[in-house]
From TrEMBL:
Lineage start: Bacteria, Bacillati, Actinomycetota, Actinomycetes, Pseudonocardiales
Assigned keywords, A-Z: Oxidoreductase
The protein's name in its UniProt record: LLM class flavin-dependent oxidoreductase
Sequence ranges assigned to domain Luciferase-like in this UniProt record: 9-255
Keyword Kinase: no
InterPro entries with a match to the protein in the record: Bact_Lucif_Oxidored, Luciferase-like_dom, Luciferase-like_sf
Pfam families: Bac_luciferase
Signal peptide range: none
Residue stretches in coiled coil: none
Species per Swiss-Prot/TrEMBL record: Saccharopolyspora ipomoeae
């Protein structure tokens, strides 16, 4: 059994071929698709966060809105770039969104990916301390967030406050108990996967990772998951961790599917550089008739090792078509693989 959700990058464009022309379209359609996915029986609605781009940039209003319109589906991100975040203000936003959704928030965070602008986090007022990198800064912000989410008091109260205070040091409010166990780290390497395990975060592994062995993506991800779980056990955490992988998977069940994705079935993993220092392996897309997909996906070692699968969706094709994409996997593929 697996949890199956969708992951949307939230692109919008005024192209005549796009059904998502504006930021307003992207946000409203994200809510509508989440409602539709819940009705279809999907388990999660996840959203990518990119700054300075025509994509979702501020996730918490969207997550809260989805939480208010749904009752069961998990709501998450994949991922929020921690280089841009004030961890205390983030804890307030996340706590509010989690309480609105009655504890369904699954918050994916990370160092972030290559950006639309040079050092965009500087415009948000952040600067790594001398001798540290922006990646170090992201991990420091994360460590602060994880500590704050424990819910302990740390701030000295005003002796003459505007409103009465509870006794002792004060914490960030609103606090949502249990949210700390639903923080995920989007890891691109084995080392950061182990670091996430040490901090008690769940693991998200995307459709690309650092090429650390020259093997296919799914094999490297399976080894990354094994390294993560080994580190988790070594830390002695009380709960069982969760692991997700993302994939582009399209079941071709009609002519429209074939028109959009018929050529995607022949793709293979690709190797490239995501920056001047990082060689990465980019995962292939899966697109075929359901019986072929079942055979292909049964050989994906990372999917087998994960408990959660996130389906990347082409959001600019509209809510109805993306609901069809999700439904096709849930209806024609997942049962044959024992995921349902």
């Amino acid at each position: 059994m697996k949890k199956i959700g969708f992951l949307s990058f939230g692109h919008w464009s005024d192209s005549p071929h796009s059904q998502t022309r504006t930021a307003s379209d992207a946000l409203h359609q994200a809510i509508d698709l989440s409602v539709a996915a819940e009705e279809l029986g999907a388990d999660g609605a996840y959203f990518r966060v990119h700054h300075f781009a025509r994509q979702y940039g501020s996730p918490f209003p969207l997550l809260a809105a989805i939480g208010a319109r749904t009752s069961r589906i998990e709501i998450g991100t994949g991922v929020i770039d921690m280089r841009y975040e004030n961890p205390l203000y983030m804890a307030e936003d996340a706590g509010s969104a989690d309480l609105i959704s009655d504890g369904r928030l699954q918050l994916g965070i990370s160092r972030g990916s290559p950006e639309q602008v040079v050092d965009g986090w500087r415009y948000f007022g952040y600067q790594p301390p001398e001798g540290q990198s922006d990646a170090d800064m992201a991990r420091t912000h994360t460590e602060v967030l994880m500590e704050v989410l424990k819910g302990g008091g740390f701030a000295q109260p005003n002796p003459r406050p505007m409103f009465p205070n509870p006794p002792g040091l004060l914490r960030v409010e609103p606090h949502s108990p249990g949210l700390r166990d639903r923080i995920w780290w989007g890891s691109g390497s084995n080392a950061t996967a182990r670091w996430a395990a040490e901090l008690g975060m769940n693991l998200q592994s995307s459709t690309l990772k650092d090429d650390e062995s020259g093997e296919p993506l799914h094999v490297q991800q399976r080894k990354q998951i094994e390294a993560y779980r080994e580190a988790w056990r070594a830390e002695g955490h009380a709960r069982e961790p969760r692991v997700s992988v993302s994939r582009s998977i399209f079941a071709i069940v009609n002519d429209l599917d074939d028109m959009y994705f018929g050529d995607e079935g022949n793709t293979e993993d690709k190797i490239g550089n995501i920056d001047a220092h990082t060689r990465a392996v980019f995962g292939r897309s899966y697109a075929a008739e359901p019986d072929v997909l079942v055979k292909q996906l049964a050989e994906d070692e990372a999917i087998a090792a994960a408990d959660t699968l996130l389906l990347t969706v082409p959001n600019q094709l509209g809510v109805d078509y993306n609901a069809h994409v999700i439904d096709s996997i849930l209806r024609h593929v997942a049962p044959e693989l024992g995921w349902r």
